[in-house]
Write a structure and sequence with these properties.
Length: 297
């Protein structure tokens, strides 16, 4: 007699899938039909499994995905906690806007955590905090301490939701996970001063129970590719541009040289950040050129 069950893939180890069902974690292999159909189950997938009388289990179906991001991949992501360091590596508005654009394109909400605030001086930290105030005003939640994250995140993660960390290499994602999950003890990395960025210390994707759902740690998202975005749609992934564009004279305004552009009017009034607009122009050029910028290679 074959028993059927459903669950979430929480880990992938040497061709085996660890599936969390309502009662157990079951280690299983995927049926060959997935290779035939060029479909590979990934962490975060909601799946069906079958278990025979001998206790042998197989992953037999992947349920429809809400989204798929990253390399290695993670499916059905509910929210991103974006870790940006104040120093070591240095805080980068260009990189911040790059991440926010990427996840806006993917349709995944983002919260921001500013790490390593204790390693910078008060003057520099104040400048960064003043900059991030703008991001809070346009709708992004910002955390400024691990204590603040630890006290809020377990309550924010809803039933079966999947939150994941993303951010610069060396920004402190593994250190943050260590503070959230007792006994996890992810390896933490040393910053390369010559590159002003860290080496990846997380090599696989795994889900861990936190709150009523899951938190994922991933090794990726530090060299995200925006070139697949259609250039005429890029404006929609800057959330304050999208809100303002309904007041532009021309539908489909690209906020370049069009007359009566509301976005450019708000930049002149100081209500839209000039740096955000400058980074929008840089990303347009990148998409036009069809290749990653040098600082990400």
């Amino acid at each position: 007699m074959i028993k059927e069950d459903q669950g979430i893939v929480i880990g992938l180890i040497a061709g085996y899938y660890d599936v969390q069902t309502s009662t157990d974690i079951i280690r299983t292999r995927a049926r060959g039909v997935f290779r035939k159909n060029n479909l590979k189950p990934v962490v975060g997938d909601h799946v069906k499994i079958q278990i025979d009388d001998q206790g042998t289990s197989y992953l037999v179906a992947v349920l429809p995905r809400k989204n798929l991001i990253g390399r290695p991949a993670l499916a059905n992501v509910t929210q991103i906690l974006l870790v940006m360091s104040a120093v070591q590596p240095d805080f980068s508005l260009q990189l911040l806007d790059r991440f926010l654009t990427f996840f806006s394109w993917k349709g995944v909400p983002v919260s921001i955590f500013l790490s390593k605030t204790d390693l910078t001086n008060r003057l520099e930290l104040t400048k960064i905090e003043e900059t991030l105030q703008y991001y809070q005003e346009i709708g992004y939640k910002v955390y400024y301490s691990q204590k603040e994250v630890a006290s809020n995140l377990p309550n924010d993660i809803g039933s079966e939701q999947i939150w994941t960390l993303a951010g610069q290499s060396g920004a402190g994602k593994s250190t943050l996970i260590n503070s959230l999950k007792n006994g996890l003890n992810q390896e933490t990395g040393v910053i390369s001063n010559s590159l002003n960025r860290g080496k990846h210390t997380t090599r696989t994707v795994n889900l861990f129970h936190l709150g009523k759902g899951y938190l994922a740690d991933t090794p990726g998202f530090s060299a995200i590719d925006l070139t697949p975005i259609k250039i005429n749609e890029l404006r929609n992934y800057f959330i304050e541009f999208k809100r303002a564009s309904k007041y532009c004279k021309f539908r489909g305004c690209q906020h370049l040289n069009e007359p009566k552009c509301e976005v450019k009017a708000l930049i002149k009034k100081g209500k839209i950040s000039k740096s955000r607009y400058d980074n929008y122009l840089l990303l347009r050029k990148e998409i036009e050129n069809g290749k990653l910028p040098e600082y990400l290679k």
